[in-house]
Amino acid sequence: VQLQAFGGGLVQAGGFLRLSCAASGSFFGIETMSWYRRAPGKQRELVAFISRGGSTYYADSVKGRFTVSRDNAKNMVYLQMNGLKPEDSAVYYCNAVTEGTHYWGQGTQVTVSS
After folding, report:
1. Closest by alpha carbon to 4, among 67, 74, 66?
2. What is the pLDDT along the chain (114 residues), one digit of tens a residue?
3. Quick one: which of 67, 113, 105 has its CA closest to 87?
4. DSSP code, position 86
């Protein structure tokens, strides 16, 4: 499984971005698709995930501001990020789990200026 994430960039505080991640390759089906992020000097953290059936989870720090969604037919996962804050600045990675194996994308940089 190959994951390609895109949509990052530089935005002012209060602004928005939409990240997308496309999964390609040969696989039976993707179970969970997730977004993680890693800020400089910090550990990687789970931002949000969505199951194949649409159940979602959000980190407390992004609840009410971020929305994760997916298109199973296209093997895509999205992260709509509204009300961005400087502390949201990080490299965002998409993750997919299929047949019990985790796959990672290359990451996309999100920078929020104050």
Report:
1. 74
2. 899 999 999 999 999 999 999 998 877 788 999 999 999 999 999 999 999 999 999 999 999 999 999 999 999 999 999 999 999 999 999 999 998 899 999 999 999 999
3. 113
4. G
